[in-house]
């Protein structure tokens, strides 16, 4: 009987991995099995349940309607097993174990890291491991528990909770301003050297910069001199005087140190992207995951919903809390 339950639970994990990764081969890599073992396990599960779980083609693997229903139940069952295991580990109220998190470097460095001490104080036996990724497929391939996603998340079976929105602004180095002057109106940007950040998740026009003042929206199509998905590299280029950037700046010291100055400060910029917390359905019942989810929500709750840009030096100097960045509540 024990072997039967263990095997069925293992098959449910195979089902989840195959559905999330899109192939038996990928599921096999995730679970450290052979593709034939995964295929055999799924076939045995289908025989037990007497329903087809997948529509199999040479190009893709998709859940059937019955398979989708079994998948939802399987996620809950596997999460409850993990919750049971964690519950015994944490029976004295201590949260322990490993939480694997996918996050982009700027969010990790300037939002999570400054607040990490509070998480360690609260849960000293909890180990957090980060991966520099926001690809939902890595939830399986990297065995992640939580993903912080910048932008609109693609369709998936993960829960996606919006934490806030990033508000960009236009920045340039003091040296660039001395050489080329500062724009007096957003339309002046068409005559400036513009450095464009185009993230991999972007689907819209990346060369349209938007500004608002007194209810009036100005959309400027700039002429880029450089385009890259490397946010940090683009900031380095701007600090070196290469041109004007338009982005949410997660590093408050860039402004407070004088390396960059904000352009068109009398204009605000509408939010350009959302920041989402993504995790598997049912995982909130796992103590180590639930503890980290609470920590992330609290970290983002620190931000002022009316704040448009990184706090200026005098405001940062007066605050004993970690510097806040340009985020608004969803």
TrEMBL record:
Residues annotated as domain HTH lysR-type: 12-64
Keyword terms, alphabetized: DNA-binding, Transcription, Transcription regulation
InterPro entries, alphabetized: LysR-type_TF_proteobact-type, LysR_HTH_N, LysR_subst-bd, WH-like_DNA-bd_sf, WH_DNA-bd_sf
Superkingdom of the organism of origin: Bacteria
Signal peptide region: none
Sample GO molecular function, one term: DNA-binding transcription factor activity
Pfam families on file: HTH_1, LysR_substrate
Family note: Belongs to the LysR transcriptional regulatory family.
Protein function: NodD regulates the expression of the nodABCFE genes which encode other nodulation proteins. NodD is also a negative regulator of its own expression. Binds flavonoids as inducers.
Alphabetized PANTHER family for the sequence: HTH-TYPE TRANSCRIPTIONAL ACTIVATOR TTDR-RELATED, HTH-TYPE TRANSCRIPTIONAL REGULATOR
Stated name of the protein: LysR family transcriptional regulator
Species assigned in the record: Bradyrhizobium pachyrhizi
